[in-house]
Design a protein that fits this description.
binds flavin mononucleotide, Rossmann fold, 5 strands, 46% helix, globular, 15% strand, alpha/beta, 5-stranded parallel β-sheet
């Protein structure tokens, strides 16, 4: 009997509650779970905190057939916790030739509306895979991540229709041990909503949150202006 394939999901968002990174990537692991895959989830910011967690990371990396790296774009790059985690993997991954075949893919989302903002981060992940002997299984990039804001995709409804189509295609590819298709990549990159709508919604959210924190009248202050 074939053993179930194992997925290790590494979530790189620093949010304590559900992040867009987690929502997008657990959609993939849930669907692959329905196809008999086993998955384990670890959070980059927790791994950094202890040597035991780092040991557990390396043990889980060793067992995985597929690693999914899901994170938000921070300053056009990977968040610090993700970089640090990848450095730990690179420095501790066995280099023997008889290592089993393992793949790595990533799911990146950013705050700006354009998915291409994530291109550099995806290129970094691809280079990491290349240098650490993982087969590169592709990267899905989404713009306007705050449109999802950690909500379940079924709850987001119409706005997430292309995201769901993309993830469904990616699941089929990954289930067959193939890299994610260009169609999955293109669908993920489609705008969730028109730009003007995203900016109006985002602006309203900043104002609402400022009000909730009692600083609505301070939004335009410039304390460091000379
Ligand atoms: C410190 C920081 C830096 C960020 N840098 C960028 C950036 O360079 N480009 C961008 O489009 N979004 C940027 N964002 C926005 C996040 O990528 C965006 O809010 C994302 O949807 C968060 O995803 P998550 O819920 O998975 O954490 C930044 C957010 C933070 C907190």
């Amino acid at each position: 009997m074939n053993q179930a394939k194992r997925i290790l999901l590494l979530v790189g968002s620093a949010k304590l509650e559900r992040s867009t990174s987690e929502v997008l990537s657990t959609y993939i692991t849930d669907k692959l779970g329905e196809k008999g895959f086993e998955s384990e989830t670890m959070f980059a910011h927790k791994i950094l905190k202890s040597d035991t967690a780092k040991d557990e990371l390396m043990s889980s990396v060793g067992k995985a057939d597929l690693i999914i790296l899901a994170f938000p774009l921070f300053v056009d790059c990977l968040p610090y916790a993700v970089i640090s985690m990848l450095e730990h993997i690179a420095n501790n991954r066995p280099t023997s030739d008889d290592q089993k075949k393992q793949s790595l893919m990533c799911v990146v989302n950013c705050g700006f509306p354009e998915a291409h903002q994530n291109d550099t981060a995806i290129a970094i992940c691809r280079q990491f895979a290349h240098e650490t002997d993982f087969d590169w299984a592709g990267g899905l990039a989404m713009g306007a991540g705050e449109g999802i804001h950690g909500r379940e995709l079924s709850e987001v409804k119409g706005m997430a229709r292309n995201v769901i189509k993309s993830l469904d295609l990616a699941v089929e590819d990954l289930a067959q041990s193939k890299p994610v298709s260009q169609m999955a990549i293109d669908l993920m990159a489609k705008p969730l909503v028109p730009r003007w709508m995203y900016f109006i919604g985002g602006s309203a959210r900043w104002k609402r949150e400022a009000k909730e924190h009692g600083v609505r009248d301070k939004m335009w202050t410039r304390p460091y202006e000379k």
